Amino acid sequence: MTGWQHIAGQDDLNLDLIHRAEKLIAPYIMNTPVLRSPELDNSSGARLFFKCENLQHTGAFKFRGAIHALLNLTAAQRKAGVYTVSSGNHGAALAAAGRILNISVQVAVPTNAPSVKKQNIAQNGADIIEIEPGMAAREAFVAANQQQSERIFIPPYNHPLIMAGQGTAALELVKAVPELQVLMSPLGGGGLLSGTAMVGHSQNMAVFGVEPELANDAWLSLQAGSIQSARPPISICDGLLTNLGDHTFPIIQNYVDAVLLVSEDEVIVAMQQLWQALKVIVEPSAATVFAAVCKYPEHFSGKAVGLILSGGNLDVACLPWPVTRLEKAK
Amino acid sequence: MTGWQHIAGQDDLNLDLIHRAEKLIAPYIMNTPVLRSPELDNSSGARLFFKCENLQHTGAFKFRGAIHALLNLTAAQRKAGVYTVSSGNHGAALAAAGRILNISVQVAVPTNAPSVKKQNIAQNGADIIEIEPGMAAREAFVAANQQQSERIFIPPYNHPLIMAGQGTAALELVKAVPELQVLMSPLGGGGLLSGTAMVGHSQNMAVFGVEPELANDAWLSLQAGSIQSARPPISICDGLLTNLGDHTFPIIQNYVDAVLLVSEDEVIVAMQQLWQALKVIVEPSAATVFAAVCKYPEHFSGKAVGLILSGGNLDVACLPWPVTRLEKAK
């Protein structure tokens, strides 16, 4: 038998697991910088501290969870190799982590994944298998692999070891900025937010997750008290289209103050403002948090707010705002 | 009498002055991160360490020199206020430094300066005076101010205190990455490169400056043995259009191994590659160094190379490569 359930560390996510993850992955990850902007502070009315996981290896926080999962494999599991299904950042992160630890990685990629994200996976040395988009094809692929392969499935978010790895970003942030009163992260499958919430809650900070109105499955899930799907989940935020999982949902229920919704237009405006002011490239998913700060001042005004900028993987020749051509000299 | 010549620290630039600058400005500046990219290492054949001065306060290394100059003013000079002439990054840096130290700042800006850079100056609280482009209007403005105002002139690069401040970026870089064999910086007026060269030379590293072919005044100056102008200096690299000064030229003559020239097209390609791989926004001037690494492998192949990314101030809605529209979900 193979499968993610056979990775060590099956307990629920807890703060100690995040602290242990931090020590374990420290030699491999970048303790990413925390940036500030007087201009964005002024325009938002809050004191904003941006944790730049877009500058993390492979351009997203996903590398933290991926390397943490692989570091917890047994020698036999390492030898068998791993696989996952990912439309982008998790796949690239797992590929890079596998290369560093000399573990074979296979990534099933939906045919509609952004080409930059596919390239990112391939450049990091993983084998790519194309599958149809959607949960059905994904589950069929995983089921087939579990029967036919010795490889270990490394899920993108719904596992305590992955969630603990993602939580180390928040841990670094609160250590760097002890005066924080609020923590925020984007919310897709809930891996990043659950780790962030566990850390924020332990320090008596308010914690918010942000998701697109058009992929509001987590918001619906909290309303309903059970995991819901947004159908169809569509958004420019291609990293936030997944549903919650049975590991991430209860953490978010218990430790997140609220899920805030932002529109596509609000994400685009926020993304351009972040590029212009911070001089870093964030993908749409990452811009949701700043969009929410601007939209819901009642939660943030006058406060010290930590925002996790989750990733920066997109094609810089394909942008969601109108761009004129800067002419070169002749 | 007023004028830059009355700032303390008239000695020539030396390594000790840079070390003292580092201590003095440390509480005010950001020790900017050093980024790496396996992808850019692969494509260049060198090991590249990017010092991200685009993430420095006000988006450029210029803040280092500006705050260093102001910290060396007497109490009377601080009270009188300061002024400068700048098409962008130095003006914004001086404005921000003045605001922090409660010193009044006036910036004369050529009418052809990029509007984003003008905004950056105004946002940081300086008084802006528009003047005609070109050295003549600039010199007339300074001469008039010296007669009519008690304000101190803070030059953009041609002063040991400014050069020492800029050299602290290289000092931080070589401390963070002791194995460096080569240091590189863009070359405009020579403030950044002279500080960088002094630091690199002290560690037996090769040092290269990079300038655009269309603004090759420093390259011409080294050939001629005296300061030359490129006429007219035109380039997409709006930060590199100035001539060398009598303080920067001799340092560059003595401590820089070579000035490398890059074309406008090479700058644009390098800039897009840096955005895509590093997830940071660099302006054209800053991309020159990576363009040179790709163009002149004989100097860099197989070596550990430190590149100073000088700044990131540009309008992200006006880019030098073709951009298609990423459509939002509806």
Topology:
2 copies of one chain form a homodimer.
Chain A: H1 15-25, E1 34-35, H2 38-44, E2 47-52, H3 62-71, H4 75-80, E3 82-85, H5 89-101, E4 105-110, H6 115-123, E5 127-131, H7 135-148, E6 152-153, H8 160-176, E7 182-186, H9 191-202, E8 206-212, H10 217-224, H11 248-255, E9 258-262, H12 264-278, H13 284-295, H14 297-300, E10 304-309, E11 318-319, E12 324-325
Parallel strand pairs in A: 2-10, 3-4, 3-6, 4-5, 7-8, 7-10, 8-9
Antiparallel strand pairs in A: 1-2
Largest beta sheet of chain A: what is the strand line-up? 1-2-10-7-8-9
Under CATH, the topology of the domain at 30-61 and 167-309 in chain A is which?
A: Rossmann fold
Q: Gap between N and C termini of chain A, in Å?
A: 65 Å
Biggest sheet descriptor of chain A: 6 strands, mixed
Which segments of chain A are poorly predicted (pLDDT under 50) over 5 or more consecutive residues? 1-6
Largest interface: A-B, 47 and 46 residues
Q: Can you identify the CATH class of the domain at 30-61 and 167-309 in chain A?
A: Alpha Beta
Assembly type of the chains comes to: homodimer
Q: Shape of chain A from CA axes?
A: globular
Distinct helical segment count of chain A: 14
pLDDT average of chain A, as an integer? Answer: 94
Percent of sequence in beta strands of chain A: 15-25%
CATH architecture of the domain at 30-61 and 167-309 in chain A: 3-Layer(aba) Sandwich
Q: Which class of secondary structure composition applies to the elements of chain A?
A: alpha/beta
Helix content bin of chain A? 40-55%
Query: N-to-C SSE series of chain A?
Result: HEHEHHEHEHEHEHEHEHHEHHHEEE
Q: Could you tell me the radius of gyration of chain A in angstroms?
A: 19 Å
